[in-house]
Amino acid sequence: MIEIWLNPACSKCRTAVSELDAAGADYTVRRYLEEPPTVADLEDVLARLGVEPWHIARTADAKGLGLELPERSEAERQNWIQLLADNPKLIQRPIITAADGTTVVGRDAESLAKVIAAG
């Protein structure tokens, strides 16, 4: 089963849901602003994506939230993960994970196709 972390107000999330529906995919929705990911959830997603936490951060939104971002470094990695867990609005969306572990930030057609195929 596919899991999609989404914000219903996000157009990219709505597009991803439409694509999943059109493909007949079996999926569950996690409204990550209402049910924020834990540090462990984020570490798992980062490992699956093969990226660092700042790669899935909506850094431009930090200022509007009154947040100062840590340095992008290994020494600050855990601080980034905690920041994302404490402020889920900073997380890129949608993040979609297929049953086989394939995980994407589903902001483009290619990423959506990849996770749907793995579904």
From TrEMBL:
Entry similarity comment: Belongs to the ArsC family.
Per the UniProt record, the lineage of the source organism begins with: Bacteria, Bacillati, Actinomycetota, Actinomycetes, Propionibacteriales
Q: Which residues form a coiled coil?
A: none
* Classification via PANTHER family: ARSENATE REDUCTASE
State the SUPFAM superfamilies in the record.
Answer: Thioredoxin-like (SSF52833)
Q: Which superkingdom, per the lineage?
A: Bacteria
| Identification of the protein by name | Arsenate reductase
